[in-house]
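ugh ok so i messed up the first submission bc i forgot one of the chains. this is the corrected input, ALL of the components this time, i swear. 712 residues overall. if the numbers dont match what u have on ur side tell me asap before i send this to the collaborators (the ones from the other lab, u know who)
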Amino acid sequence: MEGLCETRRAAIKGRMDIRELARHLGLSIGTVSRALNDRKDVSPATRQRVVEAAAKHGYIPNQSGRTLRSGRTGTVGFMLTLEHDSAIHGDPFFMALLEGLQNGLSEHDLDLVVLLARKGEDALTFLRRHVSRGTVDGWVLSGTQHDDPRIPFLLDRNIPFIALGRTAIARDYAWIDLDFEGVMADAMTLLTKAGHRRIGLVAPPATINNSHIVVERYRDALARADIPFDPALVHHGETDESDGEATASELMAMPDRPTALLLMGETAPVGAYRALRRLGLEPGRDVAVIGLRDNPACRALSPDLTCFSLDLGDLGLALARGLVAMLPGQTEDGGPAVQALWGMTLRLGQSHKVER
Amino acid sequence: MEGLCETRRAAIKGRMDIRELARHLGLSIGTVSRALNDRKDVSPATRQRVVEAAAKHGYIPNQSGRTLRSGRTGTVGFMLTLEHDSAIHGDPFFMALLEGLQNGLSEHDLDLVVLLARKGEDALTFLRRHVSRGTVDGWVLSGTQHDDPRIPFLLDRNIPFIALGRTAIARDYAWIDLDFEGVMADAMTLLTKAGHRRIGLVAPPATINNSHIVVERYRDALARADIPFDPALVHHGETDESDGEATASELMAMPDRPTALLLMGETAPVGAYRALRRLGLEPGRDVAVIGLRDNPACRALSPDLTCFSLDLGDLGLALARGLVAMLPGQTEDGGPAVQALWGMTLRLGQSHKVER
DNA sequence: TCGATGGCCGTAAACGTTTACGGGTATCGC
DNA sequence: GCGATACCCGTAAACGTTTACGGCCATCGA
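and heres the new structure output, hopefully the right one now
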């Protein structure tokens, strides 16, 4: 009876069970499980025999079964919110990042799972849904808002996570953020040293956290150079291509128009080039232009855009390691949560120059 | 005893069980499950009462439990192989596609899960690993090779999938592919009508399936225009930026150099523009250039690149619907597997022109 | 009135793992 | 020779759902 039942299951499903594997080996499923999970209480000889048999029969443990019992999924979730789709679509930022993340997680036998919010689904309900379904062990959060409800949500349930980007939340959690302070300092120094006194700034929307940092450092740099702050020179927008074009047009239509543009968006410089040329102005000759990152779109610009670069693969690796340290049972404790700024290096092109 | 045990579990875990929810309602867990899954054998009044209680307590079923029992995960996997990373990194193709996919799946209460192969992990072993772990119910395959082992693997185990791209495999399966036939016909007509007789072609690597189609149609078009085929004008490469630059340089160094370049890669035109200008040649004036797709990088080019466009969101939607029709229990049968070409429309810029 | 039918609901057995617990040897120290 | 101690291994109970099955009650037709 019992034997019949087991053969039936194996025959029907055609899948290698841990039970089936144990039967082949003449062992109990408990021993097989212990052997495959590198736990103690298994003799080296048996362990090897089990591992070899598993490889031979192509046995890979069912994830639902092990998750249900152990509570661990062996996966980490990356939350991709496509709220501002234009900003993301033009953005190869994440693709390169994902690879680094997966590489970092692979070191600990973990897998990365990228999840997308459903149409019209709020970021928090999306997170809540997947958290209570138990899809992943930990989270990498991107696109952090100035006041991001996901952070307290995860903190209160002490679910491991690391954020790509700071917030205004005054609680202790792990994050890595791009060094916008350094970027702004370098860019503003370059421009003020060259004699620019009217510098147009395109910053991300005010809801995004780094927007505040950018504007703050912009004003600091002006003060250091004894230049009065003119709020009309600062624009907040989606920092995508079309917005870059519109904003550059507006700034250049001012009576006392800027001599330099600082565009803190991935594809904004593309639009800015277009807008300038429509006005008969050439970037790098009539107007100085500095962008944020040397992404493929900006690399296509001519003259070469002066902007900043970073190693996205390394950043992904750092995020992965920061998160892994917080997962239960990985190390003893992992120490304090990582909080770090990720430096970006200035790449001089031709676009920051002007002829006087 | 029993009551104590249950309270302990709920107190410790702090999570709302189906058992806990049933206790609150004074119902059995079977009835609760049936009510939430919209099955029969539940009175309308009870059903409503259960649904309301679930919403009130924020109960969301644990995925591992339901998957383990039912065999369904409610998710669809998108396989992202970063083998040719340069081709992908510069490629916002997928990001836009993913959104359409998720939207299509949301219609059926399914979720998209993007998975990355580990470093050095073969595409097939990656797939085999996740299939036997049972991570998803169906697959969307991209980057199909000319002879792709993943196709027979999934077919033999009759696991639902749809491929973005054809292969040379003569078996019946669902796929949607870009209409490279149409693209090549339109592009070649444009060039030959303009009098070009030496047209340089940059095609994807020979292992990629569409590479064959591209070259085939290239020769067809030449034959139609009574132009002899010169194999020296055809290059196979990664079709990324640096490769586009190298290939364009090579082609332009020929004694009888081409008067037009046809670049069937996402970012190859960016490199080509750069190479041409280094030789003192201006795209759209001295050499005609036609690209594949109007991605952000190509949109940054000046003069405007003549290339093709498609709605990636719609494509994702179509893929999702094609796959959903194959999932068990969705419809009666779903009919024959969808096999379709996805049209691309020509966008005329300035780059295809030449002065004679 | 009675058998049959159908609507609701509870019971319990799965699904495939992990893991606490206990038992059986062999080894070791005295 | 004997108790104590490792070292292995098997047993069985979880984990949270779904679902086949059976039972109860009300309704209905004759």
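quick check: The longest helix of chain B spans residues 209-224. that seems consistent at least. The first strand of chain B starts at residue 75 and ends at 80.
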